[in-house]
Design brief:
Shape: elongated
Helix content: 40-55%
Distance between the termini: 124 Å
Structural class: alpha+beta
Radius of gyration: 46 Å
Low-confidence stretches: 158-162, 462-467, 563-569
Largest sheet: 7 strands, mixed
Number of helices: 19
Strand content: 15-25%
Mean pLDDT: 78
Amino acid sequence: MPGSNAATASRLDFRKLFESSPGLYLVLDPELTIVGASDAYLRATMTEREAIVGHNLYEIFPDNPDSSEHVRGSGNLSASLQHVLRDHVPDVRPVQRYDIRLPADQGGAFVTRYWSPANLPILGPEGELLWILHCVEDVTGFVRVMREQGCGDALVGEGGAHDPAELQRDAERANTTLARLARGLEQCVAERTAELAAANQKLEIELADRAMLEQQFRQAQKMEAVGRLAGGVAHDFNNLLTVIQGYGDLLLAAEADPRKRARLEQMAKAAGRAVALTRQLLAFSRQQVLDLRVLDLNAGIADVSSMLRRLIGEDIELATVLAPDLGHVKADAGQIEQVLMNLAVNARDAMPDGGQLTIETANVVLDQGYAGRHGAAVRPGPYVMLAVSDTGIGMDAATKEKIFEPFFTTKEKGKGTGLGLAMVYGFIKQCGGNIWLYSEPGSGTCFKIYLPRVDAAVAETAAASPAERVSGTETVLLVEDEENVREFAREALSESGYRLLEAGDGAQALALLAAAPGPIHLVITDLVLPGMSGRELAERARAAHPAMRLMFISGYTDDAALRRGIAGGGALFLQKPFRAPDLLAKIRQALDAPV
């Protein structure tokens, strides 16, 4: 439909098309009066159409008076326009400096600008010059970047008239320089892009590390809260178990009927299992009493290797990779054995079709970076690493997150309490160490334990000699806030010949000590008492009676207080729940020990 197309074309507003074009254009008449401008040009020169149309080009864009003569833009612009006016041919120039004056509301000062200019003649039917199309591109940023590279000045031409041949040579030199610098700019951009990519990758790693540390902190807080709860439960439960086991032992000793004895023995077994559970809870909450000694881990592993082989079965190979120059650690030998047994049992259960269990030791140094990635509780320094690895089924992320929590287990009902790894975690933390788990489904599991290395010789282990007798006639003061525990102890000591005095707190105990007509040979005090701690009571009692023996009992204690209490005079300790024979043997040991 040619007619329709012609009608559409006749309605086009070519001025609006020109003004909205993305290029930077001015339209000049032969007198160099501005008759049109594109929106892009107005934005680049910070001018308005109403303010420049109808005015002479040099009136609107004067030279910067502070510029030196050879860089004033009007000189080169004038030469280019005169060339177009005279010869009616296009004129292209190298990059030129032509400063632009800011609007009055912005101060009216001149700002430096560099332009890539071209002036094109618009001719009439007879070859007459109707208009000049002045085209520019703002290359200020490009020139600045090139000058930072030490080669931007080669782009910028000087003002003054040039003949066509010289202009052509200038343009060719500028184009050559532009091409070379464009390649340099591309290289700079590529290098900067690589730097930014590396910085971005580093930032992503830092953000990931931060998220991991936040997760570790939340997990540590949760474990700490659960530990406090578990310790409180164990404390109360241990007092109950002391009574249950104690009276059970007394009844069993006095019972001759086989059927009744069998029932009492079943009760005692159940109480024994409950005792084991409370001790595991105390281990998790880091409130168990440890016999800390300087140990050689390699020797401890060698001692339990045969037992571990029987424990894991014949279809699992046990391999040990032990560092020959392994440093020493300060830990409880019995708890180290329990750690190895628990980890071995878990590894066995993760390898139902057989596999390999590897126990490895090494001297390591945890630097500041490693410590920072694993939480504030990890201190840099020398450690001994104990690694237990298996080739079993591995764990997913959800399992790993909860694996050290008490009562969490992946085993079938009746095949695990979920306290084994919780106990391991608590013991390692109580020794000032750390434990980390590495596992993926189908790729096995590795537990890495780090215990602080100590510069001390391995402690000698003295063989314990059982007491020959447990009875006596001495006077014993028992300080215990649980009445049921006092009642049980009263019966056990009375049957063995001792004279027993009782107090429910420290104040009552001090009053009994002050009013006693004869000597009190031994004070047995719980470490956790209302009003006054057992340790404070012991210090005040020892100050008044230097020859008196001391003995602590507790089912719940912080280890620091216990160490201070024992260090204050050679006191013995008996952990709740205890049975009558244990209590009587420990009392006899305390009474027979030298002051």
